[in-house]
Amino acid sequence: MLSLTPSQVRLGWSATNKAEAIRLVGQVMVESGFISPGYVDSMLKREQVSGTFLGHGIAIPHGLPEARHLVLQTGVVVVQFPAGVVWSEDGHAHLVVGIAAQSDEHLQVLANLTGVLDDEAQAVALASTLDAAVIIQALQGSSALPEQQDAPAFEGLSLQVLSPSPYGLHARPATTVVEVVRRFRADVTVHHEGRQANARSLLSLLRLGARGGSTLTLTAAGDDAAAALLALQEAFVVGLGEEPLAARALAPESVPAAVLDYEGTLVAGLSASPGIAAGPVWTFQRERLEVEEWAADAAREHQLLESALAGAAAELRQLYEGFLQKAGAQRAAIFKAHLELLDDPEMLRESHGLIDTGLSAGASWSRVFESRAQALAAMDEPVLASRAADLRDVGRRVLRPLARVLEGEPTFPDHPVVLLAEDLAPSDTAKLDPAMVLGLCTAGGGTTSHTAIIARSLDLPAVVALGPSVLDLRNGQHCILDGDAGVLVVKPSQRDRAKAAHQRERIRLRRKEEHLERHRPAITLDGRRVEVAANISDAEEASKAVDAGGEGVGLMRTEFLFLDRDEPPGEEEQLDAYLTMVRALNGQPLILRTLDIGGDKHVPYLSLPAEANPFLGVRGIRLCFEREDLFRTQLRAILRASMEGPIRIMYPMVAMPEELAKAQAITESVRREVGADPVETGIMVEVPSAVMMAEQLARNVSFFSIGTNDLTQYLLAMDRQHPVLASHADGLHPAVLRMVDLTVKAAMKAGIWVGACGGIAGDPSGAVVLSGLGVTELSVAIPSIPAVKALLRGISMADAEDVAQAALECGNAAEVRGLVRGLLARKGAKA
Ligand code: PEP
Ligand code: MG
User: Fold this and answer.
1) How many A from CA of 779 to the centre of ligand 1?
2) Which one-letter DSSP state was computed for residue 693?
3) What pLDDT shows up at residue 111?
4) What integer pLDDT is reported at residue 382 of this predicted model?
5) What domains can you pick out in the chain, each with its CATH number?
6) Taking 50 as the threshold, does the pLDDT of residue 603 lie above it?
């Protein structure tokens, strides 16, 4: 039990600033025998790393972990500042709770304060009370003061699991827990060190503060409790979808962290993404949202909140799907976690409750998400603290339609800069143009924040947790951002600049070389050519593909022309789009894949019936047969465009020869209608049955393009979006490679060529193995084109074939990747 005596509570004090308040609180802690005086310095430093303001006028200063030896005894003191002390831009602290804790006990104190934090009226009363007993009663007597206790007597089933390592139950794994539980009716509770969380609520799970490797007890009650616990056990066993640390390792090309003896002023932070950037600072600012405090019509406010939530959910689904297509499941996962945050029953209940007290929808929602974000930010667990940015991001997304936007949309730089921000939300980072951002640095944040993850995937150096003083830097001031050493160098000397430039040069030169050579064909050392084409999803991307060295378009996902609108594009609109592409490609081939709607790509205006297993339902070519009107319109536009340039038609999701025959018959009838010449047709090979029937299918098409994304999911029976399974569904699994091998052999027999357009075609290991198996066209994301071409030019096909044959005999994808790394290391190339 938290123990507070009257001598540990001081009333009616004042301080001119935060540092003075912390020193005063520290003095009381020293007098109480809880700390040595040196701990006060650490409390001040802690505020530089992460603020301890919780909201509702309460702050909880405490020292950094490395100063724990200066804690003499675990204890808490409370100092009241009735006039308030400016603590952060978020507010004034009136009640400052100084915490001395040798281990994780402060998390317990934090949980104890939850009752006060959730009750604004009580917090206001405590800020001005003249009676210390009222404060003691509020902190000790509150029902929100759980002691370390055994799990309560429980009637249902229970199970013990370990919180995922190394980062604990943070947003992504907690989202997986919520997703698993939502498949069942059972009430599931997660118990951790005396605290309990509703397993359907992401925030409730995050507030457990469960560190990696700590024990969690799951209890479940209800008719399907046993099944729910079993499913959860399996999800925990595979790490709740978290990548193992090894897989998270930085790119092999990263320079090992070096301590650079800079002469300029160093601001130390944490390295979040390697590399070195030098250039002018540019401060990112988001718009300011202002809400009405009160509203007369509660029923209307309830409705407004619901529609703002629905709008935000739709935006997030769109972001999720876009990222899933373009950047893969790992990067898309954050938007799924955001969707879960929106669906949090506790936040919704509280917001609606506040509306009933007369507050507007905007004021209610912002109070609820802000107070939670502040509580998260104050947590000592960096992974959880960095999730405050996620919660604020999603909170503001809902708030925007309920508020007045005072400073317009955030502006992004139009010249290359080192971007500086207090913290960046994932959706801000997603909007950045990598060409205009040399590096990222943030005052707050953590190394596992999504800013860091995205910075790594965009190959941008990044340093986080630099402290608020960096925000004082002037725009345009020159600096060096050293992502390896985790420092920002302000006012760098000439020597500093030269040293940083030398390091940066090595990587830049390699990229530049690749870029300069991007229009050279990918011909291996022994003279074999592999075409490298682009995957695109809109008309404008065709010219970008050419600029990047793409040898045509190997996959245009035409369904993207049908998303995010209220009705399908008509024949003329489609014709315009296809002609724009044909013209941009200037004689290079354009493979238009006909509509692949269904599965994960929803088109609400088509009012398609809901399916239990959409990936196994009416998807791709099957939908085109159901909606022949759409198919024919699309074919008319494609065939008319084919009169201006080399277009090939590719049918998606073909599982059997009769589907191909039917698609071709419809195409032929449309071709006669529009009077076009015959065009080459091919199929996506992405369903295992198509591989097994490849010999027959090959007789009737001009080409195959292997869709390894779907082929992997259907072959390994792992949903490509599944948060737990997606990381295991690696297209380099030998089972998938054997399918590729069968497909290529069938194609060779029929004399047709085989391409690949799934994600592994642009992965260095995938590019080598697929080429070695006889795939002669790799269609990849635009930014990958120069690197894939350079990689293939640096190896011989004989080597690639040897590795590919050995890969077929491997037991898993990791072994295959190891083989390719070995080959590339021998050749001095980069994987
Ligand atoms: C694939 O399945 O590999 C593919 C390229 O198609 P999509 O990702 O659009 O399903
Ligand atoms: Mg596919």
Assistant:
1) 11
2) T
3) 55
4) 58
5) 6-152 (3.40.930.10), 248-284+410-497 (3.50.30.10), 287-407 (1.10.274.10), 539-559+579-601+615-673 (no CATH), 680-831 (3.20.20.60)
6) yes
Give the DSSP letter string of 536-590: ESSTTHHHHHHHTT--SEEEEEGGGGGSSSSS---HHHHHHHHHHHHHHHTTS-E
248: pLDDT strictly greater than 90:
no
* DSSP state for residue 154 in the 8-state scheme: -
Dist. CA 709 → ligand 1 center (Å): 5
Among the atoms of ligand 1, which is closest to the Cα of residue 731?
3
Question: 428 CA distance to ligand 2 centroid (A)?
Answer: 29
- Alpha helix (H) ranges present in 705-812? 708-716, 734-750, 764-772, 785-793, 797-808
The alpha carbon of 614 and the centre of ligand 2 are apart by a number of angstroms equal to 13
Mean pLDDT of the chain: 83
Answer for the pair 347, 22: CB distance below 8 angstroms, yes or no. Answer: no
**How far is Cα 159 from Cα 217, in angstroms, rounded to an integer?**
6
Q: Which atom of ligand 1 is nearest to the CA of 652?
A: 6
* Torsion angle, alpha carbons of 616, 619, 624, 626, to 10: 50
Ligand nearest to the CA of 536: 1
Which of 709, 713, 718, 770 most suits a substitution to test ligand 1, by most atoms within 8 Å of the C-beta?
709
| Residue whose CA lies nearest to ligand 1 atom number 1 | 707
pLDDT of the residue at 294 = 93
From the list 415, 445, 403, the residue with the least C-alpha distance to 428 is: 445
Among candidate residues 168, 174, 167, the one with its CA nearest the CA of residue 337:
174
Residue 434 has pLDDT above 80, yes or no: no
Q: List, in sequence order, every residue forming a beta bridge with 779; answer none if it has no partner.
A: 533
Whether the CB-CB separation of 218 and 170 falls below 8 Å is answered with no
Report pLDDT for 46: 76
Residues with CB under 6 A from ligand 1: 555, 557, 596, 686, 707-710, 757-758
Residue 355 contacts residue 305 (beta carbons within 8 Å): yes
Q: Which ligand is nearest to the CA of 779?
A: 1
Tokens representing residue 270 in the block? 């944490």
Contact present, 702 and 679 (Cβ < 8 Å): no
pLDDT digits (tens, 9 = 90+) for 57-107: 888 888 776 777 788 887 889 999 988 898 876 678 899 988 887 655 554
Separation CA 758–CA 712 (nearest Å): 10
Render pLDDT for 25-58 as a digit per residue (tens, 0 to 9): 999 999 888 898 889 988 888 777 666 776 778 8
**299-334 pLDDT, tens digit each:** 999 999 999 999 999 988 887 876 676 556 655 777
**Residues annotated as part of the active site:** 62, 170, 450, 757
What is the pLDDT, as a whole number, of residue 453?
55
